[in-house]
Amino acid sequence: MNKIIEQKFPFLSEVLKGIGQIMLQENIYTGLLFTIGLFIGSASMGIAVLLASLTGTLTAKVLKYDKEEISMGLYGFSASLVGVALVFLFKNEIIIWLLVIVGSIAAAMLQHFFIKRKIPVFTFPFIFVTWVLVTLLHHFSNIPPSEAFMKVPDLSNIDTFTSEVNGFGEVIFQANIWAGLLFFVGVYISSPIAALYGLLGSAVSSAISFHGHEPINDVHMGLFSFNAVLCAIVFAGNKKIDGALVLISVVICVMINIGLVNAKIEVLQNAGGAFTLPFVLATCLVLPLKKFVSKNKFLAKLEN
Q: pLDDT (tens digit, 9 = 90+) per residue, 27-48?
């Protein structure tokens, strides 16, 4: 079915894959489920993710980037996150929607810069572009926060599973159990082991944050888990060593996350927060270890 859609509706396929690549899944249906989850949480964020992925993908086409990379959705995911972040943080105004388009173009171009140099930066283009735009908006505008940003979710009936699923939801700024479930299912239909490792990563990060006496509401909302979910998905696999790499990356990630939150860095707070920076840093630290293991004959036995 994926192939049929790719052949009949190639641009739609690229846009949806771009959304699915937010959690490293090159899958049309993953992107569709992510989009539905966003619409459940907020119609504005659902529109933003489609507009941003479309803009990022169209930018890549206009600038004649590699067709295979475009087909994989590599120019849609950072753009998608920029779009959702801006609509999540600020009230709906024309300038915000214009910046969604501008930010999506910038994210796609920055993504291409790193792809051409074969530097794995994952969501860093989203982080950098959003930092710049949010800082400018805070300095040169009086646009108030959005209702979604100000709303305090009801956590009265939360349980362990709900808390872990929220780790998936918060990857795309959703504190909504139904959105989180759809995101989990979206990853699962593409890669069951990645989804299950992601759930494990969310559980481990929640446990570490809880025992580290972080604010319980933030832990339940998944604010200390979503970066760990992405780390777990990156290193998920069927080999023995993959489980160890997942655990190492998740622990490093949550420690960086806690450190950045507690440091209360003013520049970072004014730029909107750390976003997925803990994920990017932890993954870049563990990737050399993965390469070292694969090259070491003794350690490579763990991969069997």
A: 999 999 999 999 999 999 999 9
| CB of 128 closer than 8 Å to CB of 275 | no
Q: What are 215-263's pLDDT values in tens digits?
A: 999 999 999 999 999 999 999 999 889 999 999 999 999 999 999 999 9
Structural tokens at position 185: 């299912």
3-state helix, strand, coil split of the chain in percent (to 5) is 75, 0, 20
For residues 42, 43, 44 and 50, what is the CA-based torsion angle, rounded to 10 degrees? 110
CB 142 within 8 A of CB 160: no
Q: What angle do CA 233, 101, 75 make, to 5 degrees?
A: 35
Query: CB–CB of 78/100 below 8 Å?
Result: no
Contact 31, 16 (CB under 8 A): yes
Q: Which of 62, 57, 12, 58 is nearest to 35 (CA)?
A: 12
264 SS3 class? coil
Q: Using 50, 70 and 90 to split pLDDT, how confident is the model at 197?
A: very high
